[in-house]
Amino acid sequence: MRIRSFGYNHLDLSSHTQQILGSVFTLIAGLGSVVKSRLSKSFMQFKINRLSSALSSMSDYQLDKAGLSRKDIKHHAETLIKYEYDGL
41 with 49: CB under 8 angstroms? Predict the structure, then answer.
């Protein structure tokens, strides 16, 4: 592989250098995947917490009309966000 560098002579990259660059690019891609996964999980938890907060602010009468009890709020929010609404 030849790379032209800013008006200087051509640089020949040895196969060892190419392997190192390939490994670096693979590492960067892997890190991107980890970051994406963690951000996705964090955002999912944020939505669960937001829904839990909204449900917790309801009166017992309102929760009863919705068929919920106060102790089931967290579980209900997780179920709605993760499964029934596929991430909302």
Answer: no
Contact criterion met (CB below 8 Å) for 73 and 52: yes
* 80 CB neighbour count, 10 Å cutoff: 15
pTM: 0.64
pLDDT digits (tens, 9 = 90+) for 8-35: 445 566 777 888 888 888 888 888 889 9
Beta partners for residue 12, in sequence order: 2
Beta strands in 8-58 (DSSP E): 11-12
> CA nearest 82: which of 57, 55, 54, 45?
45
Query: Token match 């991430």: residue?
Result: 87
Amino acid, res. 7:
G
The token pair that represents 15 in the structure block: 């196969």
